[in-house]
């Protein structure tokens, strides 16, 4: 357990160090650029992941630890939603890039959009299934939290 926490702390330290190394370039090239969906997704991915990873590391270190089952279930829901949103922000960036490279024709747009919708439905179903509790409360919480997070975007 100590070894796992040590590697986790070292990895997070490198993540923060990387952010600090690239912040100047980010400020020059990203923050001064006009707001687009790509810029918003990039910043959401960059800082949302840093915040989410920090919360997870704090819990792993025992600083957010709580012995209640409700906390553990809530944290499992948070972790599942965080992993889903961080992964999907990257996928959407790749889809936008593919859409731009392959042309913005309606047929290409439809193929990319419907393929992505099918993928998201499959991922949501499998995530909800893996988080479910015996009483079904956790499953309900996943969908409520996900809807709230999407509504904020």
From TrEMBL:
Pfam families: DUF6533. Keywords: Membrane, Transmembrane, Transmembrane helix. The chain crosses the membrane at residues 75-99, 111-131. Residues 7-48 form the DUF6533 domain. The keyword Metal-binding does not apply. This is DUF6533 domain-containing protein. It comes from Suillus subaureus.
């Amino acid at each position: 357990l100590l070894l796992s926490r040590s590697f986790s702390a070292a990895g997070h330290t490198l993540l923060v160090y990387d952010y600090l190394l690239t912040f100047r370039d980010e400020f020059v090239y990203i923050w001064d650029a006009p707001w687009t969906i790509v810029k918003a997704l990039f910043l959401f991915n960059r800082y949302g992941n840093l915040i989410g990873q920090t919360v997870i590391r704090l819990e792993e270190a025992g600083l957010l630890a709580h012995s209640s089952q409700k906390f553990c279930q809530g944290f499992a829901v948070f972790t599942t939603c965080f992993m889903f949103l961080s992964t999907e922000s990257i996928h959407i960036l790749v889809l936008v890039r593919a859409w731009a490279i392959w042309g913005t024709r309606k047929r290409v747009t439809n193929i990319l959009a419907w393929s992505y919708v099918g993928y998201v439905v499959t991922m949501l179903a499998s995530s909800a299934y893996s988080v479910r509790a015996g009483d079904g409360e956790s499953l309900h919480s996943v969908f409520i939290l996900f809807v709230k997070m999407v509504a904020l975007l």
